[in-house]
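Postdoc handover notes: sequence design on the structure in folder B. Input tokens:
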């Protein structure tokens, strides 16, 4: 929050500079421009102050005054931006965000306290008011520490040096395209759990020599979003907001689709979790996210990747260690997501003069319309592997009639190695023997591909039937309505569909 607030205020530099003379009149005008987005009270209470500083304007943020207006906090320092007009209408911006702060508040677990500090934090960039975005920017810090404490948990975190960059350009589809990158060294977090009620007491240490964040977006509607912020500030009073709801609806529609697409990756190198039961680790660990904006046919994607996985072997039976995955690549998400129709219908229908603003049955109608577009849960090509075995899968799930229907293809390389491992373990570990027949039965349903992989094409239908490689392993569920002929509704339909869905046997759906 402490680092973000100055940049939120900076968005209010909405008036192009065009090489204007830096003087007291310019400072007054800049104050008025800022008040449109942060409210006049921020200026009246001294939270925000604009003053002359040589050939630039100093925008100062008094967090003590801000804390006094929000919580009983004890923030220790004053932050400021230096902004200087450029001849092209943009602004040169620089900032020292070195900071030390602490505050306390009453939370769910009683009194909670937090302290943090940023050492030698500096940032600079060029802000374009026509785009409401930084066209370029860099920042750096020498290190950061943070600690928080409540009745059941004490957390301490620190990082070494870090750098960040950001750049933005005008998007061909409207709005702004941006990229940002951040790297931080020597990430360490220690969490001490101490719950007197349950007796749970143990420490956990999380470490990584490098944390990186990469993000990008296209068509981000920065200007309409800034207009919405100004509207909210100008219409804080409920009566005024109700009277101006037509303008609010217009601004909300103008902000759609909010963005065309955004995506980002959060990654750790040589990630380690130290615990009383042993150490967990990964040489590389990352999560990724992607999302279309408010679109008629939007997509959402998630990914979790890890390589060089290790777990404490003392937690596991000795025979299972060889079966543990060393690399994981999971990809999943959604498709056919129509948020555009939902958003526009909701904006059109709400009335702030009514309580509630939307009718009681509006949500049910919206849900029915959403499901009618056949949204999908998608499993992208995903793999789990170790030195002997690789399991790959992909597929999708839909909800016709609000009942799930799925088609999933699973390929396994090294399945015989897996069975051999179980058979060998069963000689010394009798309890393992029960898994061998199950593994052989699963193999019996599979189809061996030319490259040696074994494949299962699984189709689970909304009627409850399950077909594997064209063979029905579970018939349709009995019909709830006695007037329906069970035989006609189950086997015939299932058999017809399986012929078209089970022919992926050449492995075409999966990359080897």
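Designed sequence:
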């Amino acid at each position: 929050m402490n680092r973000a607030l100055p940049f939120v205020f900076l968005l209010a530099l909405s008036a192009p500079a065009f090489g204007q003379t830096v003087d007291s009149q310019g400072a007054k005008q800049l104050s008025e421009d800022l008040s449109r987005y942060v409210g006049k009270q921020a200026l009246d209470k001294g939270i925000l102050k604009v003053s002359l500083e040589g050939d630039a304007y100093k925008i100062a943020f008094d967090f003590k005054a801000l804390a006094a207006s929000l919580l009983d906090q004890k923030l220790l320092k004053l932050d400021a931006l230096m902004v200087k007009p450029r001849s092209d209408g943009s602004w040169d911006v620089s900032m020292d965000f070195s900071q030390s702060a602490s505050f306390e508040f009453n939370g769910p677990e009683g009194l909670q306290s937090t302290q943090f500090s940023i050492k030698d934090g500096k940032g600079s960039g060029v802000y374009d008011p026509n785009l409401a975005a930084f066209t370029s920017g860099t920042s750096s810090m020498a290190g950061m520490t943070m600690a928080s404490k409540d009745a059941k948990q004490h957390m301490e975190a620190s990082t070494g040096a870090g750098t960040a960059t950001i750049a933005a350009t005008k998007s061909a589809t409207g709005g702004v395209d941006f990229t940002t990158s951040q790297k931080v060294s020597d990430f360490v977090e220690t969490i001490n759990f101490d719950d007197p009620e349950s007796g749970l007491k143990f420490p956990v240490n999380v470490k990584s020599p490098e944390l990186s964040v990469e993000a990008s977006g296209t068509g981000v509607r920065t200007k309409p979003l800034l207009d919405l912020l100004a509207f909210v500030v100008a219409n804080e009073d409920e009566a005024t907001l109700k009277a101006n709801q037509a303008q609010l609806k217009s601004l909300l529609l103008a902000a759609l689709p909010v963005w065309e697409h955004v995506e980002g990756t959060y990654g750790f190198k040589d990630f380690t979790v130290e615990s009383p039961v042993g150490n967990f680790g990964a040489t590389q660990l990352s999560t990724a996210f992607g999302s279309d904006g408010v679109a008629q046919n939007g997509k959402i994607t998630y990914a979790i990747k890890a390589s060089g996985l290790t777990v404490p072997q003392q937690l596991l039976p000795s025979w299972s260690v060889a079966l543990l995955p060393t690399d994981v690549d999971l990809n999943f998400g959604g498709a056919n997501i129509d948020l555009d129709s939902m958003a526009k219908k909701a904006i059109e229908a709400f009335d702030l003069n009514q309580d509630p603003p939307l009718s009681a049955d509006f949500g049910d109608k919206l849900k029915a319309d959403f499901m009618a577009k056949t949204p999908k849960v998608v499993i992208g090509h995903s793999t789990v592997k170790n030195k002997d075995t690789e399991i790959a899968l992909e597929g999708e799930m839909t909800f016709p009639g609000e009942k799930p229907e799925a088609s999933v293809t699973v390929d396994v390389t090294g399945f015989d190695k897996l069975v051999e491992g179980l058979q060998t373990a069963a000689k010394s570990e009798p309890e393992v023997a029960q898994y061998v027949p199950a593994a052989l039965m699963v193999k019996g349903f599979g189809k061996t591909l030319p490259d040696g992989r074994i494949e299962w094409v699984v189709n689970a239908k909304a009627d409850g039937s399950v077909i594997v490689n064209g063979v029905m392993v579970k018939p349709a569920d009995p019909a709830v309505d006695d007037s329906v002929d069970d035989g006609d509704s189950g086997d015939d339909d299932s058999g017809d569909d399986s012929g078209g869905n089970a022919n992926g046997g050449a492995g075409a759906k999966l990359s080897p």
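Context for whoever picks this up: The longest strand covers residues 200-220. Don't rerun without checking with the PI first.
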